[in-house]
Design brief:
- With about 475 residues, the protein is an alpha+beta fold.
- It has two domains: about 220 residues, MetI-like (MetI-like fold); about 120 residues, no CATH class.
- Helices cover about 45% and strands about 10% of the residues.
- It contains 14 helices and eight strands.
- The strands form two sheets. A five-stranded antiparallel sheet has the order 1-2-8-5-6, with no helix packed on it.
- A hairpin with a 2-residue loop joins strand 5 and strand 6.
- Helix 3 crosses helix 14, helix 4 runs parallel beside helix 8 and helix 5 packs across helix 8.
């Protein structure tokens, strides 16, 4: 009985396992009939889900994708071959306009500037911030501050930088800093737009300077009245003007004052009780075109020149009256594009820093330490080890920002004033102006949209290929 059972069991086993003494395995199962749910191609995907059910769940997403992405692309390509009204076939005329219209050519040139500089500067700053904050105790707080601009919208950032770049130093932060630095190293004018009255003993000498109508002599006090200075702009420590007293050593004395009485009632070329001295006004004694002596008026306007000034003419140099330095026109035709790029870098350097810092955290520390043990300094470790190993991360960040700047619109629209919008123009902004502006031409607007698509797609495909390549490692 036992032998027969064993023989029956051996017959149920594969030939190579009968009576072998090894572990016994059951006979292979027969394949399911074709068309059954468990058979290959029987209506189930590799994950075991019925294909019909999977398609049903994907259908809403596919409909939205087609309605919001595929259809607009196809229609834009179709519309780009028609004229402004959309009724006449224009061929490639709209595409010719992209390279013949000066405004659109400026937009293409500015887009090239954006693609080259904005991603490069943002990535470089992100790399520097990520590396420098890796070893400091408060690095996390610094990263938080740098990344914080990413929490606000492009619209808000545009409004902020429109105020930062305001031309008035009292409102614009950029010009306030620039003027402060300039005035630290360059003497500013004390009385801009000040000038003498026609009956005053002064006349214009050219270049903004004023000179006395006659030569001055010792024992004859000189009076130099000026007008054109607002009382509110006078020096805070200015005192009531005093009549000059004769110098006892043969020198020349005089008074320079604001010949204006607040509320009226004063007399021209006469020092009245409420009139203030022009403190700090520079006075030069000039003989035969050469300056022989100089002096500055005190708080009460009085000044004294040495005896060498006897017989010379007194000159008030133009440095007393030049316009104050008001900084740089950041939003002028020359600097508007670099200024807007600066606002973009302020926003996106934090994004680059966070991604690069994540890649930096994954570097094998033993390689860095081995290089230091071998005698490499920090710059060599950074240039020859850190940067090459971060190359995939840097490429992804750089390409992502390139795609982003190709579509830049908000910052240009908000920051650039109307007078320089043509100088700051980019393709996305020109697309808006051509499609929805005063002289809207949807044919040209669609052609710009197609051009933007053609510029973005290769960069996007490169990025996708890079990500997939990294994923297979």
């Amino acid at each position: 009985m036992t032998t027969a059972a064993a023989g029956g069991a051996d017959e149920a086993l594969p030939a190579d396992r009968q009576r072998s003494g090894g572990p016994r395995v059951p006979a292979p199962r027969k394949a399911a009939p074709a068309g059954s749910p468990g058979a290959p191609g029987g209506g189930r995907s590799v994950t075991g889900t019925r294909k019909a059910i999977a398609a049903l769940f994907l259908l809403p997403a596919l409909v939205l994708l087609g309605a919001l992405v595929v259809y607009p692309i196809v229609y834009s390509v179709y519309r780009s071959f028609f004229d402004q009204a959309g009724t006449g076939f224009a061929g490639i005329d709209n595409y010719k306009t992209l390279f013949t219209d000066d405004t659109i050519r400026t937009a293409v040139k500015n887009n090239a500037i954006w693609v080259v500089f904005a991603p490069t500067i943002s990535t470089a700053l992100g790399l520097i911030f990520a590396v420098l904050t890796e070893r400091i105790r408060w690095g996390t707080a610094f990263k938080l501050v740098v990344f914080m601009p990413m929490a606000i919208s492009m619209l808000a950032a545009g409004i902020i930088f429109r105020l930062v770049y305001d031309a008035a130093p009292e409102r614009g932060v950029a010009n306030a800093v620039w003027v402060g630095v300039h005035d630290t190293f360059a003497e500013s004018s004390g009385f801009p737009k000040a000038h003498p009255l026609p009956a005053a003993p002064l006349k214009a000498a050219g270049g903004g300077a004023f000179v006395t109508k006659t030569a001055v002599h010792a024992g004859q006090p000189v009076r130099l009245p000026l007008v054109g200075v607002l009382p509110a702009k006078m020096p805070g420590d200015a005192k009531p003007a005093k009549a000059p007293a004769a110098a006892g050593d043969g020198g020349i004395t005089g008074t320079a004052w604001l010949d204006f009485t607040k509320g009226g009632g004063g007399k021209p070329n006469v020092i009245d009780a409420e009139e203030l001295g022009l403190k700090g006004l520079k006075v030069e004694a000039v003989r035969n075109g050469e300056v022989v002596a100089t002096a500055k008026a005190g708080a009460d306007g009085t000044f004294t020149l040495p005896a060498s000034a006897d017989g010379a003419e007194l000159r008030l140099p133009a440095t007393n009256f030049r316009e104050p330095y008001n900084g740089v026109n950041w939003l002028g035709p020359t600097l508007v594009t670099p200024g807007i790029i600066g606002s973009y870098v302020w926003m996106w350097a934090g994004f680059a820093m966070v991604l690069i810092a994540a890649g930096l955290a994954g570097l094998p520390r033993e390689l860095l330490e081995a290089a230091r043990v071998d005698g490499a300094n920090e710059w060599q470790v950074f240039r020859r080890i850190t940067v090459p190993m971060l190359a995939p991360v840097l490429a992804v960040v750089l390409v992502t920002l390139m795609i982003n700047v190709l579509k830049i619109f908000d910052l240009v629209f908000i920051i650039a004033p109307g007078s320089t919008q043509d100088d700051a123009n980019v393709l996305a902004f020109q697309l808006y102006r051509s499609s929805f502006g005063t002289d809207a031409d949807l044919g040209v607007g669609s052609a710009i949209a197609v051009l933007l698509l053609l510029l973005v797609v290769p960069v996007m495909l490169f990025n996708i290929r890079r990500i997939r390549k990294e994923g297979r490692r």
